[in-house]
Amino acid sequence: MQVHTMHIPDGFINAPTSAVAGVIAVIGIAICLNGARKQLDEKTAPLAGLVAVFIFAMQMLNFPVAAGTSGHLLGGALAVILIGPYAGALAVSVVILVQGLLFADGGLSAIGLNIINMGLVTAVVGWFVFRGLVKVIGVSRPKVMVAAFVAGLVTVPVSALAFVLEYAIGGTGTVPVSTVTFAMVGVHILIGIGEGLITALTVGAVFLVRPDLVYGVHDRLPKRLLVTSNSVTTPANGT
Amino acid sequence: MPSPHTHGHDVGERLFVHRHSVIHRLPAEVKTVAMVAFIFTVIMTPPNQFWAFALYALILVGVAGLARIPARVILPRMLVEVPFVFFALLMPFFGTGPTVEVLGLSLSQAGLLAGWGILIKGTLGVVSSILLAATTPARDLLMGLERLKIPELLVQIASFMLRYTHVVSDEMHRMKLARESRGFTATGIRSWPIIAQSGGALFIRSYERGERVHLAMLSRGYTGRLPQLTTVTTTAADWFTAMSLPAVGLIIALTAIWAGR
What we know:
Oligomer: heterodimer
Number of helices of chain A: 7
Mean pLDDT of chain A: 87
Strand content of chain B: under 5%
Radius of gyration of chain B: 23 Å
Number of strands of chain B: 2
Shape of chain A: globular
Structural class of chain A: mainly alpha
Largest interface: A-B, 74 and 89 residues
Strand order of the largest sheet of chain B: 1-2
Low-confidence stretches of chain A: none
Helix content of chain B: 55-70%
Largest sheet of chain A: 2 strands, antiparallel
Distance between the termini of chain A: 42 Å
Number of strands of chain A: 4
Shape of chain B: flat
Mean pLDDT of chain B: 85
CATH architecture of chain A: Orthogonal Bundle
Strand content of chain A: under 5%
Structural class of chain B: mainly alpha
């Protein structure tokens, strides 16, 4: 059995709340598009596209837990640590959009809600937690992995809280908000530990081989000098 | 190759069911708007107006019939809704107010109604999305979004995602084969570092593929826009045909809201 975090279906949150969430998601995505274009220029489409595929593929990768259960990654924190908050949020949002539009995974009317919870909220929280921690504890492989673990861990219950907030505003169910909060946050802290571990291990693996591809530390890496027999030059950025 | 028949096709094409019907012929953006609007009319409807949902279901059956999408295509795809069926089934155990005895269980009436509402609205939503994807090629859906003024960049990212999903998942499959041919079996959390290592490698390969794709595009004259290969003209008649779906939905929803007061 797989521990699956569900996308909100149609009819779970009422029409006005879903519509407002749609508008907020559109604004959020517009900000991300703008930011990503500044960071990646006309490279945005192929790079964010391939990272979206990567996140989509990672979500299909099974991490066995015990006794036949397994979990998978949500990927919000991982995406922003690896390619930055704007492009990362875009990649995850596109995955949600495609899942909703093509695979009926998450309701069409709830796409805005799902993008806010899993794309935008995780991007903001994951990015600031990771950057804040790296600033405090410094940059080395174990430290980057610790920061990635915490970022991954925190994003999942925060995303669940965003859902609880939407449920409190426009939920159609009868389960009391306090019960939903308790159950959702409790379960999602557990899921978050798994998310944190996978995020940390994956970021650690990338950092070992291509630290320059971990965007979350791109400005904190020591400049590596190219030393030739009679000159010292810094390599161009972005290689 | 894990899935030889998908070679050369992107993910979306597997979902499309080729037919020649009025529904298939409608431009993608018209269909998308109509479906989303229809779903909004469904979720506006109070759950205690059972007749309304019967009508919605009937309408969707009609659309499926008109598009000649058989039940054996629709039903298996409906499995995505299983997780929220559990959630809906929980509802009757919560909720305040009068209760009813069902099979010896004391269930909340309000909860039963809410659970039913979630179940039926979710199901109608899932069927609507399935019909949209089955009658519209994925690429057209994305191009349709672009004509709806969804930013081109977002549409491009989504098209890259569709185009490369098989490439990347095949790559992932090859890594799995390589791991297993070295004697690896995934057993619990201790094997996570190994799987995550593949994840890291997959990221580097995907990112570098993205860079190569970008260079290849540049060398073919890419300046940030993709050329439109086909021009689609959307007529007022198309909009009229498609919007009859949410229009009927709206009449049903408003009647249901009025009747449920």
